[in-house]
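Re: export button greyed out
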Amino acid sequence: MIKKLIGAVVVLAVLAGIYTFFHLLVNNKLSIGYNKGYQPTQPLPFSHKLHSGELGLDCKYCHASAEVSRHSAIPSLNVCMNCHINLNKESKYLTQLKEAYNSGDSIAWVKVHMLPDHVKFNHAPHIKAGKDCQTCHGPVEQMEKVYQHSDLSMGWCISCHREQMDSAAHSSIIEEVKNKDQGQDSKKHVPSIINCSTCHY
Amino acid sequence: MQTDVNENSSTPKYWLSLEQWRNDEGFKELAQREFLSSPLAEDNKTPAGGWARREFLQLMGASLALSTFGCVRRPVEKIVPYAKRPKEIIPGLPNYYASTFVDGYDVVGTVVRTREGRPIKIEGNEFYPGSGEGLSARGQAQILSLYDPDRLTGPVQNLVNAKRTNKDTVSTNWVKAESALKAALGEGGVYVLSSSNPSPTSRSIIEKFVAQGKGKYFEFDILDRSTFINSQGRVTGTEIMPSFDLSAADVIVGIDADYLGTGVASTAHQRAFALRRDPGGSMNHVIQFESMMTLTGTNADERYAIKPSEQLAIALKLAESICIQMGVSFPFAWREIYGSFNDTIKGFPFAKKLNSIAEKLVKAKGKSLVITGAEASMTQNQSAVYDVVNFINGVLGNDGKTVKYSNSVSSVRGSVASLNELISLMNQELVKTLIIHNSNPLYTLPEASGFRSALAKVKTVFYTGDRVNETGIGSNYIIPDHHPLEKWMDVENISGVLSLSQPTIQPLYDTKAFEDILLQTLGSTQTWNQTVKASTLAKVGGSEKSWVQFLQKGVYGTVENSPKSGRSYNGSPLKIRLDEAADFELVLYTTVGIKDGTLANVSWLQEFPDPITKICWDNYLCISPKTALDSGLNEGDVVALTSNGITLDVPVHIQPGLNDRVLALALGYGQKAAGKVANDIGVNAYQFAAIEKDQIIYSGMNAKFKKTGQQIALANVQGHHSMEGRQIVVEATLKDILEDPQAGQHKHKVFSLWSEHKYLGHKWGMAVDLSKCNGCGACMIACQAENNIPVVGKRHVLNGREMSWIRIDRYYTGTPENPDVVYQPLMCMHCDNAPCETVCPVLATVHSDEGTNDMVYNRCVGTRYCANNCPYKVRRFNWFNYSKVSNPLKMVLNPEVTVRSRGVMEKCTFCVQRVKAKKTEVKLADRKLQDQEIKTACQQTCAAEALVFGDLNDPSSEVSKMQRSLRSYSLLEELAVMPAVKYMSKVRNVSQLKGADNHKKGGHH
Amino acid sequence: METYRKPLIVGNKTLKDVTDDIASLVETPPGLGWLTMILGSSSVFLFYIIVIGIIVGTGMGLMGVSHPVGWGTDIVTFVFWVGIGHAGTLISAVLYLFRQKWRTSIARSAEAMTVFAVATAGIFPIIHTGRPWLAFWLFPYPNQRGPLWVNFRSPLVWDVFAISTYATVSVTFWYVGMVPDLATLRDRAKGLRRLIYGVFSLGWRGRARDWGHYEMVYLLLAGLSTPLVLSVHSIVSFDFAVAQLPGWHTTIFPPYFVAGAIFSGFAMVVTLMTLVRIAVPEFKKYITIDHMELMNKVIMTTGMIVGYAYGSEFFIAWYSGSKYEVYAFVNRAIGPYWWAYWTMITCNVVIPQIFWFRWARRSIPTMFVVSIFVNIGMWFERYVITVTSLHRDFLPANWGMFDMTFYDFGVLIGSFGMFFTLFLLYIRAIPAIAIAEIKPVLGFGKGDHNGGHHG
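Workaround output, generated via the alternate export path:
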């Protein structure tokens, strides 16, 4: 009898365990098999902590194209040189940088945030929508060495897009559109942000 | 299997699926355990009794954990930023450069799209007069020739033997080559042979060079038009190639003309022609007499299958009755010849029609046009035919109105006379050095021309081609010129209209602009680039500002549109030679895709199905159904074709609407040294051509054929050629349409069991005007370039595995003897009730809230159920890893479109990447999206503007207007799939449709 | 009345004889016949595996499928094998519920046939996909993609459930049924064999309690399997019926497919049983001519049902007035694939009519030949449905043809290798006739009161 009881308890426990496991997984509380936390060593120990955190440079000073293009783009060396041409602080890394700049053969940085090629992510509209870089990239200004903050799984993208769909802003747009003859007079269009073709094409 | 996953287009797919691999293993393992475990196990003491339930569950948890945690990181990727980024390049954004595409006489202004400094797509330049945004299939395909793997990577020296036939080459360097050229220049007797050179600056430099070298500069085109220009001279006194204004012509009569397909300025003509095919406006009436079925003929209202030897008779007959009706005297010099044609004319099945056609022309005098000049018209009597035709236009007062001499096509410069002169000079051994530029005479010129033997007498031959082709083999030095997309060039196509071709990429290889070499050899201080700028700057206004504007716009100058008074004309005596009628007359024609064979090594064009026959990867002898029947030939039977004493083995294609006495064979095939793609595809029809006096003869040669018993499977992309009486292409006569816009349509009462989709924002849709579409197929190549569509090769096309997202279905209606032809562009219909969406088990194809049917490649497992369930069969499957392309070819890939791997389905996406790009642009600029701002690749390139894409939720948009028109119908409407693409019925300006009774008649196939 | 009823088991077997006869097959070393057969079939099986390997490694393009014929040999053969399975379930479950005593001799093997047929069938949907290594995406499982589930509207997903359920239930039913026999073998065996059979006999002791549980479970499983006989092939038929393709889009498909399935299934049982009778002469006593005759009657009946379906398809096509439907069926009969169609008609409708004659029903060679023809015919039925409908649909421009390549024949033939290998191994490893079930009906038809009353 008691044996049966224990059996039952164990079974229930395990079932509950599996349920929570899947629940967390599906609601992307739990990330498995993605690159979250990936923190490669870069050819030059460029410190975001210093530049962005302490010196307080705006992200978009270096990653300018994020506002207009799909790529936030690692800055070309001439951007670095804008300042470092004058900063003659002795450092072997700076000399490496300058050599790379002068020789013109640049520096091969290690890619941290890697999306599959079949995912077409576009920075510009996200910036336009007023998202902070930190929302996805985490507290970069505190990172001595950059690591991947979010797991960049599809579930992770979708969850945020779903929130947008439910957001007041979105529903207001829909209202506006409905009132104004399916949106033709309206400047706004219902942002179609939850289609497959939003990212895959 | 994993290695294959490795091959997948995207690295991430690799690790992604690898992870799921483990996952899968986990489940397999799990399933095993499940089998072993039994409900009774717990009571059973023997451990062998399988796993106790609790263990089993623990194990399950474990195996899952194992499976999921055990993943590998993706292989490390590197990012290399610019050291000094050029300011115009922003990673991820395209740049556009105005340029010009020179394709024989079809010169069009283009805009080249580049990404991160590499050109990926060519589009029409809206500012260019005539063609506008339209661009031909060949224009679209030119981009691939830039990345042709068979291009030379540097100058080459031939170790030529006496006959100049051996292929052994040694690579040399520019210093050697140029010193050789310098020496030659000192020696004198330096001649240059090139095809028509549309660049004034280039010409002046070459002229200067040959002057220095006491030689001469000859221009010659294998697709010669000089005889027509000469005829213009004889008849009107001015030796020019006039430009024809089809938009001003109410009646167009073509006698072996192909002004829409392969003729002079065909792209511009397509646009002008389409303007007059709108039943709403004043629709033109098009009549065509032709010996090979051409694109023009298939778009004509009345079409008559003739044989080449009948052209003159028809022309004279028309001239005569027009003269009578116009009260002009029929030239006395022609009477005798005309008389000799009496019986021929009486013998025509359409003899009675000729008078009424003449009437139509007269009725529309000043607004009519008689036109000729395709290869099929180049018989031994071509000059005579041209004289009569030019004369007729004169009589009808079309000169200066539909025949524009003020804006002549000045890029047509070559002449056979100059070739003959060169050959004779070579034979006299006066030519010490010959530079061959933009031309491949040893391939194109028939042996009979004696060019090869003459060339052997030349000491040194320089060839500027980009590969060791036939001419390359025959020359001492091959000094490769830049690809047009790597080179500065000023182009004057229409007199008074200047356009520019500017480099869009650093030269890929160690090549040099031909003109630069000349300048250096001449010891000039200026480079070619500077010279072009200097000489052009003067013409476009002199100031730096005007230069920049010119660069941006790509065009300078406009065409004269106001009608001019006609030139005087006279019927000078005709020089003709009449042979007794032959059993079969051979016609050598050019196809829309391959044309003269210059771009033959571009795989897109080889796999581009000919608009009329729908066959690709071959040329073939077209014979009429009756001829086939009489001589017991089937499609693909190989015959030994003999003409001009030459015999070649060619497969036959049974071509409806061909005169029973005509055999037709396409030029531009059968190249031996053009590259991996084009080599030994088809036979070299140029061999049958003859050069006689100062004209090339492509047509009307006496020919015969013998069955060989072999078979060659012809890769025809179309399975069946009749509509089987189904409502697919709706046809109607102009009269009926004006009475009832829905004429010819059979409407069904359709209702849907599904609840309608809600489209709050956009609802993308497309309208296709079948009256405007002329079937040229430019859209197919445009789509291929835009969407990274792979080429599969003949073997797979034979299996129906071509990948085209948009195809053009061609149907014959009426009798096989002389059928009507209809074209129907078919792309994904983006149905509201899409049959594909319901059946895909993994949700790889789903409906978007903008009405498009999204295809998610990376989710697709390839059950192919969607393709089976698609009534339009527009879905294409990657049977093998077709998309695997090597460098440099992969540089042409559009980074905005995923490259599909093996085993996934793909199809038209309405160019969703373009939609996205524009929407982002609009969003960033806080403005409203304008109608026609987004254009799909197919719409953009369509010179006829037959395809219109847009927002159906916007009632004022062009596409909504077209879809609201009563002429619109949806294909297979009765299936209630609610396609977002609608067709507008095909209207013919005739009294009676040939296809009218095709419900009773089946197809001929 | 019993006197008129024929005995189910001939040759006055005692209970011991039964056990010995049947168990001996498993206990004695295999004869030459079996060895040659297993050698043949397993080498074909090996060939099968290699062919599949090449296809998966290189691409679906190796097979004949193309545009517009997107489904070919894989799907045809899949449906064929699934169909085969049905007779097994019918015999072992439905006839059990109807208390058809004559089923007992063949039930075990028929059920085995079901399991192996479904296993063989199961391979095809996987290898016919473009990316088989991702085929598991057809199962709804929790994931980090949003989550992204499967498309429950798609018949292919229904298939996944139908087939997997069918496989699971059949296997369980079959296995539970053989537990007492396994125990018997265990008790007769020594050493390793004893251990193995011990494991699988789940500690069966033959106690009244065991029998009680057993009878109940077996009855329940029989009840559970019965609806599957109808459901599985109905759902398979939805793969076609739900599509809007002329020739596929037909409401008659579910019953038509089920009838066809039972038809082909019984044919396959007859084929196998004749073989078993040849291989093991002693079994003639248990699988008598009467059993065969009964099955032949079923074949003839279902054959005529199928024939009726063919006819009504044509009628409906004409009656529908849809020119696409009409064309699809005219094209079947006189189009380029007429030979396939008429092969089907001949094998499925004409040839089985010979069973109107008693001698034919009771002649082993005749029924063997007929059953082979029926199997061929039923494969062609699926070929006709799949290929001829696809190769000419709505728009004539994309009409095309389907030609089988080496690889098509490879998988087709290979699948038989797999099936027969499994079946031959089964014959040697498991009592091919349910000992425990035979014994009750031993006296049947001999005035013995064990049976007959319900019969």
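The mean pLDDT of chain A is 86. The button fix ships in the next patch.
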